[in-house]
Amino acid sequence: MNITKENVDALNAVVTVAISKEDYSTKVENILENHRKNANIPGFRKGAVPMSVIQKQYGKAVLLEEVNKVLQASLNDYLVKEKLDILGNPLPKITEDFNWDKEDFTFEFELGLAPEFSVDLASVKKVNKFNIIADEKMLNEQVERIQKQYGKLIPQDKVEQDFTLRGTFLNEEANINNATNITLDIFSDKKTAKLFIGKKVGDVVELSTKGLFDDDHKLMDFLKVDHDNVHGLDVVVNFTIEEINDIEKAELNQELFDKLFGEGNISSVEELKARIKEDAEGQFGQQADQKFLSDVIESLIENTKFDLPAAFLKKWIMSAGENPLSTEQAHEEYEKSEKGLRYQLIEGKIIASNNLQIRFEDLKTHTSVLIKQQMAQFGQLNPTDEEVEGVVARVLSNQEEAKRLSEQVMSTKMLELFKGKISAKAKDVSYEQFVKEMYGE
Q1: What dotted CATH number matches 2-113?
Q2: Fewest Cβ atoms nearer than 10 Å: which of 62, 170, 253, 309?
Q3: Span 11-65, pLDDT tens digits
Q4: How large a percentage of the chain has pLDDT more than 70?
Q5: What average pLDDT does the segment 146-162 reach?
Q6: Global pTM?
Q7: Which of the 8 DSSP states describes residue 162?
């Protein structure tokens, strides 16, 4: 057997695999002999079928299968041995008049080669590290929300201005079907609010989503519309009123404080606000980190220049899935996936050059934290180490889950690396300002 590689250019190559009779003949002969011993063919005793008959019936199929096995194994071994960094998989060059009656065969494969480039973290510019502050407006809103949440519902017959409504937004064509609670002050204008005044349970109010709220992102909260679809969404939705309630807000007293945070832990409105601020800003920190990571990635993709073997990749995409794609479909798929592929290559360089590794202990620790958080949500606040370790073992035995969690661990390592090596401008913002920054508005 002989394998050679010819570089077409820096990003494309052709590998030629020459297979001789000696590479496969022994295996083919052994398989055919086994067929001869076990074949039940009319006119012949079992085990006494002439090899010429076996050869005629099974020879070509066995030859094709064994040559293909030798071909795939030798090609894979070659790629590993030569440490070739390829994109996609090798593509066989089709030969229309390939002759399987010969004893020696030659196969050619196209390769898409990964580009040579370097990553300069210092090239990342104009990236902010947001510090999201829970301002007084937010704290007051959260205190009022708590008072309403723990307040007393008083059913009402007709809608008035300050009542709370339970109902469902519906537009089947736009795939909108969401039950939610609303108050009339959520709408962007008073005319919309007036449509509800005097309505009863069972009544339906017809609304236009265009300009329904002062911020289109609220469509995500109240109608569960994806972010990609909220901007300028202009459809009609029906809101069916299912409950009408006035709320007698809970008093801000020790009984409420104890119910929220345990007996004696909070004893004043000021301490309540301080606790809300601490919890909120802890959650905001995770969102700020995600924004920082996303912005760094965007900057790296924009500033790290290299070419890709685009023609090869489009050709590979055509045959890579379960169903073959047309040239146009493959081109569209490549356009959608190119950015992700570029970051995969950039990420690989960063991981290698900074020796970022995921140890099994890292994965176990990360999974344990998540499991404890989930247990706490269901009221199991103090699980034993044995209970947590048992759940962790079951979770990590699932390959898909282990892969997903490993990606989270690596993302955390990348974030810490970026924080240490990238000079970002610190910027204090309210959560409302952060949302506008997040969505570029």
Answers
A1: 3.30.70.1050
A2: 253
A3: 999 999 999 999 999 999 999 888 888 887 887 877 778 888 888 888 899 999 9
A4: 99
A5: 93
A6: 0.73
A7: T
Domain residue limits, the chain: 2-113, 152-248, 286-438
C-alpha distances out from residue 267 to 239, 254, 261, 262, 275, Å: 41, 6, 10, 11, 11
Query: Which CATH number is 152-248 given?
Result: 3.10.50.30
- Report the alpha-carbon distance of residue 59 to residue 143 in Å, rounded: 81
Classified as helix, coil or strand, 203 is: coil
CA distances, 89 to each of 23, 114, 356 (Å): 24, 12, 26
318: number of Cβ within 10 Å: 18
Stretch (H or E) spanning 281? helix 269-303
The per-residue pLDDT for 182 is 94
As a whole number of angstroms, the distance between CA 113 and CA 85 comes to 6
Task: Give 292-337 as a DSSP string.
Answer: HHHHHHHHHHHH------HHHHHHHHHHHSSS---HHHHHHHHHHH
Identify the H or E element spanning 72. Answer: helix 51-81
Protein fold of 286-438: Trigger factor, domain 2 (1.10.3120)
Two structure tokens written together for 320 = 């890579």
CA dihedral of residues 329, 332, 334, 340 (deg, nearest 10): -130
pLDDT of residue 441 exceeding 60, the answer is: no
- Per-residue pLDDT of 397-435, as tens digits, reads 999 999 999 999 999 999 999 999 998 999 999 988 898
